[in-house]
Amino acid sequence: MMSLMKPILCSVVICETETHIFRFLVIVLLLTAYVASVDILYAQEETAPGKYRIEFTDKDNSPFSLEKPAEFLSPRALQRRQKQNIPLDDKDIPVNPDYIDIIRSFGVRILIVSRWFNAVTIANADTTVLASIMNLPFVKQGIPAYLSLYHATEKDRVAGIPDETSAIDYGYSAHQIAIHNGDKLHDAGYTGKGIHIAVIDAGFHDVDNHVAFSKIWLENRMLGYRDFVNPGSSFFDEHTHGKTVLSVIGGLIPEYFCGTAPDASFWLLRSEDVSTEYRIEEDNWIAAAEFADSAGVDIINTSLGYSTFSNPSQDYTYADMDGNSTRISIAADIAASRGILVVVSAGNEGSSLWRHITAPSDADSILSVGAIDSFLVIASFSGQGPSYDKRVKPDICAMGVRTYGIGTAGALSRSNGTSFSAPIISGLAACLWQANPEAGVMDIQQAIRESADRYNQPDTLYGYGIPDFNLAGILLKRRIIDPDPENPVTVFPNPFFDEIYIWLNKKEASEITVTLYDLSGRAVYIKNQTITENEEYLKVDNRLNMLPQGMYLMNIRVDNWQHITRLLKL
């Protein structure tokens, strides 16, 4: 080839044949160089400028084993698995430390280690070093994709001031809790105590000093915090978004504000760098979720999402919202498979060109939460479903328009976005789980979905609708009671306060008459209704809260059958 190149390079006039030969050789050289560069670049993913993700082929010869899980999982993490009958598997085993040491020996910096994906994210690697690393026998070859960060935008909108009351003085946060009958869980003594929640977010500015979180600190319920973006930073000097999210779950200012799980315990985990939009945020999130798993958390709240990016060539497409294409959605499902309830904001793209939900809210084993206003109307910005593979998304909705929380300036204020509807659900789910400790993560998820007001007719805006956590608790308790085949109805709860559910143990359409008597024999409630074959229960709630405490008798007639049951009113 060099003998052909000399006359070409030295001649001023080149014949047509030589021109073709020249062009051919140039193309060959360019292709050769391109293929070489592709071999290097496609060997790993550049998740941010100068930062690369390296996956390993195996976990062979690791010093860790499934026979000794206490070496890499906390006692609480193992208890969570045992309670839900979830076996350990290869994803639980940490990355082989020998592989990490060998990678580090090339002079690169290890930023993130992921046991679920058997990978590391590195920095300070030039092209030559990368090529050498990719030639290692335990390094997997892979095709890169681009990532960026979805940033929520909250703008003030219109809503009314709530006036609900409860045993807890909720102040301005009453309505966003009462929408879901969350106050009834609280009144029954379920406020999230003993439930561990990880909040994965952008930053928790001033959480260590703000009065809304003082009770958490005083009661040692702030379990810890980790920065997966910049471990050397001053943790409580970063962004404010996570502070607002945390306040919606666990904040408390008596007479002014109360979160949905005021007695829960918290891990604060920073994964999002708001100054950039690169895929390394996904790796950060995965590292945070893996840490949460190993620490034994019960619930992960994440008010983050990924869709379109600063560089259009890096954008996800709607086809990627199938629950299995983005790394963060896969990780969210892995977390769920470990017994963790993952609650995710549906995204704020409903009125944008993107319009759809964002990852990881497309994952199939998590709760994706859209936003409604105080009048129960879907917010225009709320991310829309379904998922690309036609699953119902979002799963449910909560108040995300003018939601009360601790705002950017540190004052009690209202914020808009699915960032703030998700934590409402996370907190109430903690209370529900406290009330039903025998339930598994999928039991909790399904009960919340089934309690929603559109469960039998879900749509692409509300999903299954607005959940009723009082009903969700009744659904969970009903599941552990085998219905009497001789009795066509089951009555819940007993004792009752202001609602009674009559569950139908028969599928046929029926005429039902319900009469509630006090002990003097006076009828204090009568209801007649036709039950269709698709209805599972009849709800009795008309002014029952006004009845005096004490014992009552309920007479239930279903077609030609009659049943009398004794009920206690609290």
CATH superfamily of the largest domain: Peptidase S8/S53 domain
Estimate what percentage of residues fall within beta strands.
15-25%
Mean pLDDT: 85
Count every beta strand, where a strand is a DSSP E run of 2 or more residues: 22
Low-confidence runs (pLDDT<50, min 5 residues)? Answer: 1-43, 143-165
The largest sheet has its strands arranged as: 6-9-5-10-11-12-13
Q: How many helices in DSSP terms?
A: 14
Structural class: alpha/beta
Q: What is the CA–CA distance across the termini? A: 95 Å
Given the C-alpha coordinates, what overall shape results? elongated
CATH architecture of the largest domain: 3-Layer(aba) Sandwich
Structural overview:
- This protein is of the alpha/beta class and 570 residues long.
- The protein folds into three domains: 15-134, no CATH class; 171-477, 3-Layer(aba) Sandwich (Rossmann fold), CATH 3.40.50.200; 483-569, Immunoglobulin-like.
- The protein has 14 helices and 22 strands.
- The strands form six sheets. It has a seven-stranded parallel sheet with strand order 6-9-5-10-11-12-13, sandwiched between helices. A four-stranded antiparallel sheet has the order 1-2-4-3, with helices on both faces. The protein has a four-stranded antiparallel sheet with strand order 19-18-21-22, with no helix packed on it.
- The longest helix has 26 residues, at 16-41.
Offer a quick outline of the entry:
The protein is α/β, with parallel strands linked by helices. It folds into three domains: 15-134, no CATH class; 171-477, Peptidase S8/S53 domain (Rossmann fold); 483-569, Immunoglobulin-like (Sandwich), CATH 2.60.40.
